[in-house]
Amino acid sequence: MHEHDVLVIGGGGAGLRAAIAAHEEGADVAIVTKLHPVRSHTGAAEGGINAALREGDDWELHAYDTMKGSDYLGDAPAIETLAQDSPEETIQLENWGMPFSREDDGRVSQRPFGGLSFARTTYAGAETGHHMLHTMYEQVVKRGIQVYDEWYVSNLAVTDHDDPADRECHGVVAYDIKTGAVEGFKARNGVILATGGTGQVYDHTTNAVANTGDGAAMAYRAGVPLEDMEFVQFHPTTLPSTGVLISEGVRGEGGILYNAEGERFMFEYGYANNAGELASRDVVSRAELTEVNEGRGVNDEYVYLDMRHLGEERITDRLENILHLARDFEGVDGLEEPMPVKPGQHYEMGGIETDENGETLIDGLYAAGECACVSVHGSNRLGGNALPELIVFGARAGRHAAGADLGEAEITKGKTPEIEQEDGLDTPVEPGAVGASDEDAVADGGAAVVEPDETVRTAVERERTRIEELMEKDDGIQHAELREDLQKSMTANVNVFRNEEGLKQALEDIREVREAYQDVYVNDPSRTFNTDLIHTIETRNLIDLAEAITLGALARDEFRGAHWRQAHQERKDDEWLKHTMLSWNDGSPELWYKPVILEGEAKTYEPKERSY
Amino acid sequence: MSTQVPEEQDQEQPESVEQEAETAVEEEPASHGDRRRAERDAKRQQSVSGAPAEIEGDTFQLKVFRYDPEVEGKMEPRFDDFAIPREKGMTVLDALIYARDRYDTTLTFRHSCRQAVCGSDALFINGRQRLGCQTQISDLEGPVRVEPLPHQDVVKDLVVDMEHFYDQMHAVEPFFQPEEESDGDLEEYRQTRENREKIKMSTRCIWCGACMSSCNVAAGDNQYLGPAAINKAYRFAMDKREGENMKEHRLNVMDQEHGVWRCQTQFSCTNVCPKDIPLTEHIQELKREAVKQNLKFW
């Protein structure tokens, strides 16, 4: 059994920042990641980091923009923490050597981004995430922090108390991808989940193949609520054939969207008369799809993003990476032609419920980054707010897990007296587990175990059994087929535009995939680098998360942020200023709600009509 | 082990697969599971070993290196052939995924971002190091031959052991070491645009290992730091924010037996770099700087 003070699961932006912070607090910290840290998906982030650094800007403006962008579904304490901590964290990266783009005076450059009232997005060309990831990995190397790379964490070691709020996390179970060994990792102080996004729930996504929401699914099954999962961000500019992201920086620098008739549709059809192309992502995504649906799309599929007028010099200076992406993945020369773009899944606003210190409902279990929901993004994330989230909340989770006192959190976790139970949601099928109630969540069945070593050992045994069963079965269904069915249904039914019929269809499809998953088997008998096995376990996670997204979306009969419902095209503040919460109770999701916190440090944010 | 295989062997269709397929045809597929199984077996029959004719339309042949140290019948390295339907915009990675998901789920390779930034799918494709995700099938002549990166131990199929590569990267103190501590209080270390421009290309490295694999010198000298690690050292040595003393220290690290002087300016690293980093130029520049530094003592 491996043993450390703090275990960080995931080696992307949030994980690396958490590890560095825990190390600075004096903890013995280790990173466990199924990739190698430099392969993490943070490296694909392009745009930048929002931070109020300059005269004329301040954290309160950043907080206001973020709250407005969230369509008033963010929690004020989280949003204000993000805006307050981001400048220091951003400059910290600079001090670690991150190669930011520079102004004439040698300071870091900032540029405009969608939904921001000030040009506060700091950036490093159009490859900000790559530089952020590598800069932080360099600091991990410098500090000698132990990294277990290509170890797949497949379950948490959580005690067995009936009430999830009484449970404790003592470590994780991980599978050594290179050798096939299943081993326990004990955490004396805490486990931090930093496992990233869930993009693989969809078949057209900017996300890496590795983004299967493992951390969120594991925490969910161990009893931690998932929050606001229905809010999935679709990025308006992805390449049609692959889903590769074309940064919002293109529009930030002045890129223009045209339909097939050459009309600048954001203005022409009144989607955003003030901000035009720089309206927030949900607004632009809907505008593009409306153009396509009304017959003004190119090849009935996409629209054009044009940056030619910016000139070669400016493009090469600030957006060079975009030229490479357009050329390599779509065969288009961005200097000569407009680029084809359409919306694609990009970011999961919801996730593991945490407070602003990264703590979850389960003692000793933390989460940060895209897998977590603090919540700063509410129902719609502004461009340039994901990277500050990683460093701000990664650092806080790391410090707190290592024992630092960050003060009492204002955001509550779990059920409080104010909660509201959803009853009578009309679902076409009973959601949740099929057959065995919950074969692989540790916090289920058996006698209550509290001794940490024993908890980890028990978890390891269960995981070994699960893996053996998957491997020994010699016929059945393979993960790739199930994953494809799931992704197709989610893309068809739980996309930018949503209606009741589609959402119900998706639930039926998810149920069918869940049933078929009982028959899943691993074809590859090898213990060496068995990606067949890893993808099979990941697919189970995708099923649980797809269901959480769809259930939340079906229940929320209003239009807010990224969540649009055909029959409910207005925001219903009287009824819906609340977070969707899902708890996994013995294999069946339970839906409940908790109120949004709009009361900030100095003022209360009043919901207003969101226009750009 | 070497990635060169003396003889290519066409694989016989495993008997068990044929039997399964027959059974599936006889029975009336009822459940979701049975239906999918029947479809899968039908597809599998079309796969591999000279049965491409069953797929309609334009297909190409994908020859993939196979090896597994612990599975009977795979311990002896071989090539498998897959018939892949040609699609517009298809990359080598897409073809590998197609082969794995439709024909043989045991086919093993690393991949993640699909957009040339995670650096995990550097492969030896038609005799050259390239990223699978960045290589269009339409740019290649058939059959498309995919092998693991040469000069690295093969773990399984297309997966190579990257430990040595990481060790070399770590050996050059790959982290920023500024002369003085920052004043804190939101103070940047100011950097001129020109200096950022100077190091820009060197910061693009995605640690894919293509350059190391292509380097004849690295192949013969296991201790040679290699183009990627030297480029990483360049990135810091040329960053003026580190200061002169640190630059001297970095040049000393480069000016060693297995450092910059091993480079024989063959340009193979530069030729294969998927991020167009002028690696050879960077190594040459460090050689010049190292010479200049030594001359100071005269």
TrEMBL record, chain A:
Record keywords: Electron transport, FAD, Flavoprotein, Membrane, Oxidoreductase, Transport
FAD-dependent oxidoreductase 2 FAD-binding domain residues: 5-387
Record's bilayer topology term: Peripheral membrane protein
Transmembrane segments: none
Top-rank lineage group of the source organism: Archaea
Keyword hit for Flavoprotein: yes
Entry EC no(s): 1.3.5.1
InterPro entries registered for this protein in UniProt: FAD-dep_OxRdtase_2_FAD-bd, FAD/NAD-bd_sf, FRD_SDH_FAD_BS, Fum_R/Succ_DH_flav-like_C_sf, Fum_Rdtase/Succ_DH_flav-like_C, SdhA/FrdA/AprA, Succ_DH/fumarate_Rdtase_cat_sf, Succ_Dhase_FrdA_Gneg
GO cellular component, as recorded: membrane
Domain Fumarate reductase/succinate dehydrogenase flavoprotein-like C-terminal residue range list: 483-612
UniProt-annotated catalytic positions: 281
Matches recorded under Gene3D superfamilies: FAD/NAD(P)-binding domain (3.50.50.60), Fumarate reductase/succinate dehydrogenase flavoprotein-like, C-terminal domain (1.20.58.100), succinate dehydrogenase protein domain (4.10.80.40), Succinate dehydrogenase/fumarate reductase flavoprotein, catalytic domain (3.90.700.10)
Cofactor(s), by name: FAD
Cell compartments where the protein resides: Membrane
Single GO molecular function: succinate dehydrogenase (quinone) activity
Family: Belongs to the FAD-dependent oxidoreductase 2 family. FRD/SDH subfamily.
Protein name: succinate dehydrogenase
Species of the source: Halorussus caseinilyticus
TrEMBL record, chain B:
Necessary cofactors: [3Fe-4S] cluster; [4Fe-4S] cluster; [2Fe-2S] cluster
UniProt keyword annotations, A-Z: 2Fe-2S, 4Fe-4S, Iron, Iron-sulfur, Metal-binding, Oxidoreductase
Domain of life: Archaea
Pathway per the UniProt entry: Carbohydrate metabolism; tricarboxylic acid cycle
Compositional bias annotation for Basic and acidic residues: 29-44
Pfam families assigned: Fer2_3 (PF13085), Fer4_8 (PF13183)
Biased composition (Acidic residues): 7-28
Disordered: annotated span: 1-53
SUPFAM superfamilies from the UniProt entry: 2Fe-2S ferredoxin-like, alpha-helical ferredoxin
Domain annotation Succinate dehydogenase/fumarate reductase N-terminal: ranges: 61-166
InterPro entries on file: 2Fe-2S_ferredoxin-like_sf (IPR036010), 2Fe-2S_ferredoxin-type (IPR001041), 4Fe4S_Fe-S-bd (IPR017896), Beta-grasp_dom_sf (IPR012675), Helical_ferredxn (IPR009051), SDH/FRD_Iron-Sulfur (IPR050573), Succ_DH/fum_Rdtase_Fe-S (IPR004489), Succ_DH/fum_Rdtase_N (IPR025192)
Span of domain 4Fe-4S ferredoxin-type: 203-277
The keyword Iron-sulfur is assigned to this record: yes
GO molecular function: 2 iron, 2 sulfur cluster binding; 4 iron, 4 sulfur cluster binding; metal ion binding; oxidoreductase activity
Family classification: Belongs to the succinate dehydrogenase/fumarate reductase iron-sulfur protein family.
NCBIfam families: dhsB (TIGR00384), PRK05950.1 (NF004616)
Protein's name in the database: Succinate dehydrogenase/fumarate reductase iron-sulfur subunit
